[in-house]
Amino acid sequence: MNGFTYHNPVKVVFGNGTFAQAGEEAAKLGKRAFVVSYGDGSVAGTLARLAELLDAAGVASEQFLEVVPNPPIEMVARGVERAKAFGADFVIGIGGGSAMDAAKAVAAGVLYTHGDLWNMVYASHSNVTAQPPESALPLLLIPTLPATGSEMNMCSVVSSTTRGKKSYIWADCLFAKTAILDPELTYTLPPFQTACGSVDAISHVLEIYINGQDKSDLLHEWQLGLMRTIVENLPVVLKNPTDPDARAELMWCATCGLNGWASPGDAWTPMHQVGHVLTSRHGINHGSSLAIVMPAWMDYHKALKPARYAAFARKVMGICGDGKTDAQLADEGIAAFRAFIKECGVPTTLSEKGVTEADIPGIVEGVKSVSFNADGVLSSNPPVTAEALAEILKKAL
Ligand SMILES: [Fe+2]
User: Fold this and answer.
1) What is the CATH number of the domain that holds 101?
2) Per-residue CA distances from 357 to 180, 363, 393 (Å)
3) 175: left (phi over 0), alpha (psi -120 to 50) or beta
4) In what order do the strands lie in the sheet with 139-143?
5) How far is the CA of 200 from the centre of ligand 1 (A)?
6) Burial of 131 (0-12, 13-18, 19+ CB in 10 A)
7) What is the 286 CA–ligand 1 centroid distance (Å)?
């Protein structure tokens, strides 16, 4: 079992109906809230209610509704200027991961003193020149899509349209002061977004489970339990979108999947590095990019860790292990996982998204330029070479 240092200061207010406490919690953080969210109408009702709650609590607010998926740093820069002009003393991010991540970047950007906001970003793993932010305005985060876990971690994923890159800011100051997790806010999520969010949440745990340390019993059981809970509850929600218990399970799983509890002592996210390039080069949404990479990645590596893949088959996918070898179970588990994702309406192959074998060298180069380390490999357990990555992508065609 690897050693680790764990720190997570986020106050979590969880449960159906807790959104009603947004004004009260906001008033503890400041008097002038800069609200970061979407302008496409998808959370319009929630934003209107938030404005009422803030008003009733005596908190002045201004809405910045320019967030789009894979939030561009150029949009963040506009938000920073608006927040400064408003005199914001704290920031509220409300929406999915992109809204919360944009809110984090804005909160840090307001106080950033190292020039171009892109300097905050770890844009290359082999040549780290990032100057992460040291401080940020207080943050209140309110997820409306369970997926990224951003509400309880210190990461903000952003992109740059001019640079064609997607990477992350990682800094202590990006922890929210408070996160309000109200599953009722997710009742109206469309099935595809719900499924993609769950696939993303599974991937945050699966990355660590299959690429991380070999011996850590409690960690592995926690990871398996998290993934199993999502696999059991996602179909329930797709059938009945207002099931309060299943929605609550998905929301808490997403938070716990990336708040550090599922990864103490490990930090492997190689599949996400590949997924980010599929998003930036081919416009594949985050959840779908991972749905495509995960089964192929597992298929490529299964022979190295048969017992771990067998446990995944039995404890996550519910496959009976009687009379089967670990290798057989590994194959059945991966096949069942791919079928599960497909049944939930998320693509599992590159070809479904119009990506061909001819595109693979470009994808590999994209991953190399951002995520390969100084040794020329993608950090993982085991590390992955450019040749191996090309083979994995072929399995994903
Ligand atoms: Fe993710």
Assistant:
1) 3.40.50.1970
2) 44, 10, 8
3) beta
4) 11-14, 178-181, 139-143, 90-95, 32-38, 60-67
5) 5
6) middle
7) 7
Q: Are residues 235 and 96 in the same domain?
A: no
Same domain, 100 and 213: no
What is the distance between the alpha carbons of residues 92 and 33, in angstroms, rounded to a whole number? 6
Domain total for the chain? Answer: 2
The pair of three-digit structure tokens given for residue 33, joined into one six-digit string: 């809230």
Over residues 46-91, the pLDDT tens digits come to: 999 999 999 999 999 999 999 999 899 999 999 999 999 999 999 9
Rounded average pLDDT over 210-216: 91
Burial class (CB in 10 A: 0-12, 13-18, 19+), 193: middle
What is the radius of gyration, based on Cα positions, of the chain? 20
Q: Are residues 52 and 201 in the same domain?
A: no
pLDDT attached to residue 374: 84
Q: Would you tell me how many other CB atoms lie within 10 Å of the CB of residue 374?
A: 9
Q: What is the CATH number of the domain that holds 333?
A: 1.20.1090.10
Query: Of the residues 186, 203, 218, which one is the last residue of a structural domain?
Result: 186
Q: Given this model, what pLDDT does residue 129 score?
A: 72
CA 319 to ligand 1 center in whole angstroms? 26
Domain membership flag for residue 388: yes
Q: How far is the CA of 186 from the centre of ligand 1 (A)?
A: 18
- Which residue, of 186, 210, 244, is where some domain finishes? 186
> Which domain covers residue 314, as residue numbers?
191-395
Mean pLDDT value across the chain: 95
- Looking at the structure, tell me whether residues 298 and 267 fall in a common domain: yes
Could you tell me the distance, in angstroms and rounded to a whole number, from the CA of residue 31 to the centre of ligand 1? 33
- Under 8 Å between Cβ of 83 and 108: no
Q: What is the pTM of this model?
A: 0.94
Q: How many CB atoms lie within 10 A of CB 238?
A: 18
Q: Is residue 86 part of a domain?
A: yes
| 119 and 145 belong to one structural domain | yes
Q: What is the mean pLDDT of residues 121-145?
A: 86
